[in-house]
Design goal:
The structure is a single chain. This protein is an alpha/beta fold and 273 residues long. It has helices spanning 16-25, 38-41, 47-55, 79-99, 119-139, 159-168, 178-181, 188-196, 221-232, 254-269, and strands at 3-7, 30-34, 62-66, 104-106, 143-146, 173-177, 200-205, 207-209, 212-215, 238-241. The chain has a single domain (3-269), classed as TIM Barrel (Alpha-Beta Barrel). The chain is 42% helix and 16% strand. The radius of gyration is 18 Å and the shape is globular.
Length: 273
């Protein structure tokens, strides 16, 4: 059964228990927990506090994890940066196992220079995925690779590149990011869904408006089209509203964030009722 929720980073300034309270109050029954949520990340990753919040908020039926990406790049030309990025992806997988998460979302990395990816960059991506595969198999956790926006240094710059990789890496699942599919004007969302529907573990739901990523979704025609397609294909996994609070002015209060998330959650659910 489809669940609808949000990324914890929308409530980044609050403690873990308050974030769970806020999502429950907004009518969410899913959550994507970013390890980089400050009240968790900056306090030595207190998994016991996270577990307690999960157990005391039963309305949140589905919890997925987003591996760390800030300041990290598993395909960096700097071997130290690449290695620590891989280690954090594996640490996210192990934490996901501890909290019984449904999936872990990872990013594919990027070429360090703002130039098209080279053969060496593709080799670094292959090494990264090999290491993550080993960690995922040992933990018994689903790992989902997220499609990224089109940029010059992307390792998987077009839908067919991403789709080809997942068809080769059969162990990998897929996190579909709607906003990322709207860049480049290539209509990639339909291609991703048609080719990889059975591999989708998580969907990140947000809009791209005037080139600005991760905007709110309600009544956005592009997002509505993607949600309609997912419903037609019978998607039944978590739908995670990945909305950037900096797209709002002025700064939002907690009550206003809950109000926005409640409105967004109710709108997304209309496509799956």
């Amino acid at each position: 059964m489809t669940t609808v929720g949000a990324s914890t980073m929308f409530f980044h300034e609050y403690p873990v228990d308050i974030i769970f309270d806020a999502l429950t109050d907004a009518g969410c029954d899913a959550m994507e927990f970013w390890l980089e949520t400050p009240s968790f990340w900056l306090k030595n990753l207190p998994t016991d506090i996270l577990l307690d919040a999960i157990h005391t908020h039963p309305a949140i039926r589905s919890v997925s994890v987003h591996a760390p990406v800030l300041d990290l790049n598993p395909c960096s030309v700097n071997p130290d940066v690449a290695e620590i990025s891989i280690r954090w992806a594996c640490r996210a997988i192990n934490i996901a196992k501890q909290i019984d998460a449904c999936a872990v979302t990872i990013h594919p990395g990027r070429r360090t220079a703002k130039r098209p990816a080279s053969f060496a960059d593709k080799e670094r991506l292959a090494h990264y995925l090999s290491e993550v595969k080993t960690c995922a198999a040992a933990a018994g956790i689903t790992v989902a690779l997220e499609n990224m926006e089109q940029k010059v240094n992307s390792l998987l710059p077009a839908p067919h590149d991403f789709i080809s990789l997942l068809k080769k890496e059969r162990w990998l699942s897929f996190t579909l990011d709607t906003a990322h599919t709207f860049t480049g004007g290539n209509g990639g969302a339909a291609e991703y869904i048609e080719q990889l529907y059975s591999r989708i573990a998580v969907v990140h739901v947000s809009a791209c408006i005037d080139g600005r990523m991760h905007c709110r979704t309600k009544d956005n025609a592009d997002v509505a089209h993607v949600l309609t397609l997912l419903a037609e294909y019978g998607y039944a996994g978590p739908l995670i509203l990945e909305i950037e609070d900096l797209t709002f002015q002025p700064e939002l209060s907690l009550s206003k964030k809950i109000e926005i998330m409640s409105d967004e959650t109710a709108w997304v659910r209309t496509f799956f009722d």
